[in-house]
Write a structure and sequence with these properties.
By secondary structure, the chain is α+β, with helices and mostly antiparallel strands. Helices cover 48% and strands 13% of the residues.
Length: 296
């Protein structure tokens, strides 16, 4: 496939657990990645990263001038890694790597949180009604997380952030946050710049990182407007971490015990939300969440 599509004659190639591959040419590392996003998303990403050749790993066209090359029954992309893969990033790195990008007509735009979250809740409520009887842990906890999500939707609708600046963001930030994932263009979306900050806080909190020093870095850098502090808190309210795992349980047959990581820390996360609310309130006026304040 590599010889036919890219004129690359590779002697050694390594298959990864997820069905992707990597290989080296001299000291440069390349990945053959299975297509896992809609093609219109990938094509929009390819156009954007041409503007930032040093910030993201490079995608290559094959000799047929296509991003996609077929192997067996799947289509793949060829990606060359730019820079080191395993440097761990922190909050300051996240803030320094925000790339402003204004294009709300782009297919990658994800700024309508209210619509996206409402659709997600409707879909999951249907899934739980159909499949929940075999998943008692989901049945017991689902309404709590739907309540958090509905709070986040109400919060967002009160903000009306249409004029807030947008940036190149990621669908998800992983923990630990390594350079390979952060600079992988196949994870890009366009959203308000607090998306990555929120994702970094949530994923690292649930993986045991002490978040308070990271919050202090965020507040010290002071790069957010009053609206963006509220957008960030809104995003932190939304329990995408829980909903992502329900997808894994229903669609990929994961054991529902993967939810315990989040459920067991729900009270601790509420305490973190209170801490964040109080810290942000010292910077700007925040929309109050009555039930959260009462619990504190």
């Amino acid at each position: 496939m590599l010889l036919y599509n890219y004129n690359l004659n590779i002697e050694n190639i390594t298959e990864l657990e997820n069905g992707d591959y990597h290989f080296y040419i001299d000291y440069d590392k390349y990945y053959i990645l299975k297509v896992n996003r809609p093609k219109e998303d990938i094509e929009a990403i390819a156009k954007i990263i041409k503007l930032y050749p040093l910030q993201f790993h490079n995608l290559f066209l094959n000799r047929f001038n296509s991003l996609y090359s077929k192997y067996l029954n799947d289509e793949y992309l060829l990606m060359k890694v730019t820079g080191p893969e395993h440097i761990e990033l922190n909050m300051k790195d996240i803030l320094l790597n925000i790339i402003p990008y204004e294009d709300k007509k782009n297919i990658l735009d994800r700024t309508d949180w209210s619509k996206l979250w409402s659709l997600k809740i409707d879909y999951l409520e249907y899934q739980v009604s159909e499949l929940g009887k075999n998943h008692p842990l989901i049945t017991k906890t689902f309404s709590y997380y739907v309540g958090l999500a509905e709070n986040a939707i109400q919060y967002f609708n009160m903000l009306n952030p249409n004029n807030a600046p947008t940036a190149l963001s990621h669908r998800r930030i992983k923990s630990p946050t390594y350079t390979f994932d952060f600079y992988n263009p196949l994870d890009l979306v366009i959203d308000y710049k607090v998306r990555d900050i929120s994702s970094y806080i949530k994923t690292n909190f649930f993986n045991g990182l002490d978040i308070e020093p990271e919050l202090d870095i965020l507040l010290k850098e002071n790069t957010l407007s009053a609206l963006e502090y509220n957008l960030l808190f809104c995003r932190l309210l939304y329990p995408g971490y829980y909903f992502d795992k329900i997808h894994k349980i229903f669609e990929d047959n994961f054991d529902e015990d993967i939810l315990l990581k989040y459920i067991n820390k729900s009270a601790e996360y509420e305490a973190l939300l209170n801490l964040i609310f109080n810290k942000f309130s010292e910077k700007t006026s925040m929309i109050k969440i009555d039930w959260l304040i009462k619990k504190s």
